[in-house]
Amino acid sequence: MAGGRPWGPSGPGADIPVHVKLRTTDVDEARAFCRKLYYGPLRIEPVGDASTFLFSADVVLLGPITLGEVGYGTDIRVSIAALETSYHVLMPLTGMLRSRHRGTVVYADPTRAAVYRPTGDIELDWPGTCRLLSVKVDRSALERELDAALDQRVISPLPLGASFDLVDGPGRTWAALVRLLLSELRGPDALATRPRMAARWRDMVVSGLALSVEHPYGEEPAGLQGPYRPRTVKRALDVMHAEPWRPYTIGDLATVAGVGVRVLQESFRQHVGMPPLTYLRRLRLDGVHAELSRSDPGQSSVSEIAYRWGFTHLGRFAGAYRERFGVSPSHTLRGRS
Predict the structure, then answer these.
(1) Which of 10, 124, 163, 252 could form a disulfide with 14 if both were Cys (CB 3.0 to 4.6 A apart)?
(2) 153 vs 118, which has greater pLDDT?
């Protein structure tokens, strides 16, 4: 192991990075390292050739964030109880990771990251070919950052999306930032290791994640919408989130907002990135997807869940669902079994 002072999670606001690493063929030693550095209720079980087990971790702790490059050398299964105090992102550098969290299965690879909320157990099927970047962010730090980017208080825990794109958009930039910061902080004399610079890098990682991951405040990341939303837009968003199944028309939403239809449409285009009814449809689709993901196919049907979320034309619904999620609604429901 390496580090300038006794290692362990730094307190919020700490600006001095702590670099630690471990390379071992001992499963118990690897398990103890991960429990101390990440989460106590964590289980690691080799399911591949145990003779090729070679745990390798190179990790930097910096205030509310923990960045690391991790691999196991053989196929393993990881089980983690609810994170509670943190949000977490896994970004494979090589190979593919199968993740199950809150009823949703995500296949993470170098093109797509897996995201974990503080609630809900996690199960990972981690091949020996998969080496990844692990980013742990304190719950309060990310929630404060997203709250500051909006003109309203966010709910806790944040209802984040289960994954995000690493090839295009803000996710690509954020992943590059994490890789660069980890590389810099592992060097002994890098500029980023100086406390004032380290604090700025730390803040960029937290704010960048808040702008990259999906959340229900609009399809575009909050930072691209601008920090302020007019009250007219907020009123329309509030009623849509409160009762997304209601058959709102654009006229209904304009009346709620207290402006004309054209003004509301232009305000949404500027501050949300899409028309009001497009936002409403995506909000409903995301609600259906979440419910299908956690429902028992023996007790629930696609049609009843779709109707409950305000979709009355099942053909158009199925087409919109496939366009958004890449699979049919029935495939999502069957995947729960």
Answers:
(1) 10
(2) 118
